[in-house]
Amino acid sequence: MDVLSQTIANQRLYNQRITGMKHVSPVEVVRELGAVQAQDYHQAVWGIGLRAQSAKLSDVEQALNDRKIVLTWPMRGTIFFVPAEDTKWMLKLTESRFLTNDKKKQAELELDGSTLHRCRTLISDALSGCTPVSRPRLMELLEDAGISTKNGRGYYILGYLGRTGMICFGPHEGKQQSFVLLDEWVPNLRELTLEESLAELALRYFTGHGPATVQDFAWWVGLTLTDAKRGFEAVKSDLRLDFVNGTEYWSSVAGSAASADTDSVVLLPGFDEYYLGYKDRSAIIESEHDAQIAPFRNGIFQPIMVAGGEVVGIWKREIKRSGIEITLSPFSPLGHREEAFREAAKHYSDFMGLPITRIES
């Protein structure tokens, strides 16, 4: 890793609160980052926990149950944790971007307007009164009404109703995620204009993710570059510019500089903001290793090992009754850093509240 990449990586670690001062609560983590990617729920809660002071899994889940953070589909048609009160305007900001894709997908799945209206009515009735209902039960409800959920239809219907602001994820029912009506679950939703939404999300992104480019911001949200620039220009006076190899990187002027420490070691979850929060990841990973983070090309990103800001391997954990088994798969021998990664694994086990029964590397 060259000196310039090291500088970007260290500052991102610091601004994302992976190193340095941690946030007080899981809610603060989500708010300052703007949103936290959560395609894999069990990975994403760790992504929040490692950025908060002494947080446990129960703390993150309590914030969900207390309706302070919400799990929904605001960006790029995928799942994120967002601050509860910001859910509606974030969904509205990107909803129009999916209209063309939705029409195409609905045609493929033979879901016409009448069928989707019936789905909306059936699910609304089932969830009314702030009643959480599990995914399998909602699928059963649709099937009983003669609406097939096979071949991805059921998952699409729930995602569509989520992206359009009707439903969001509710509390877990055992191992099953449930759904609730968004307006009932979070009654005091903020309303922002388009310009206000673009500006607020831009400021949060560059504060929590900087140094980053405008192209990074556009990719992360799923905006056109034109709209991303509108948000960026509205808050540009609150941002600091750094030129690195001729590229403009932006951060909050209110932020402080990271230390020159290059020895930080951390185990990050799959889909983490440190990796997926940017279109260009060349500052944190060698191009020859990039394919190993998503080896199956199916949209599944592996948990990553990070040392000194650089992605140096992948890892996995298996949770059993007796505890957690962890396998480290570095791209090259860890050498003196092996003990530090074992300590990082202990940090994860403390968050989960389970002992480590085996670490293999």
Main traits of this protein?
361 residues, alpha+beta, 3-stranded antiparallel β-sheet, 20% strand
Helix and strand topology:
Layout: H1 3-15, H2 26-33, E1 36-37, H3 41-49, H4 57-65, E2 69-75, E3 78-83, H5 87-95, H6 99-108, H7 113-127, E4 133-134, H8 135-144, H9 153-163, E5 167-173, E6 176-181, H10 182-185, H11 194-209, H12 214-221, H13 225-235, E7 239-244, E8 247-252, E9 265-268, H14 273-276, H15 287-290, E10 304-307, E11 310-320, E12 323-330, H16 338-352, E13 356-360
Helix pairs in contact: 3-4, 5-11, 11-13, 12-13
Number of beta strands: 13
Strand order, largest beta sheet: 9-10-11-12-13
Distance between the ends? 23 Å
The rough form would be described as globular
**Which radius of gyration do the C-alpha atoms yield?**
21 Å
Task: Give your account of this protein's structure.
The chain is built from 16 helices and 13 strands. The protein has 361 residues and is α+β, with helices and mostly antiparallel strands. The chain has three domains: 21-185, no CATH class; 194-252, Arc Repressor Mutant, subunit A (Orthogonal Bundle), CATH 1.10.10; 265-360, no CATH class. Strand 12, helix 16 and strand 13 form a beta-alpha-beta unit. The protein is globular. The chain starts with a helix and ends with a strand. The mean pLDDT is 94.
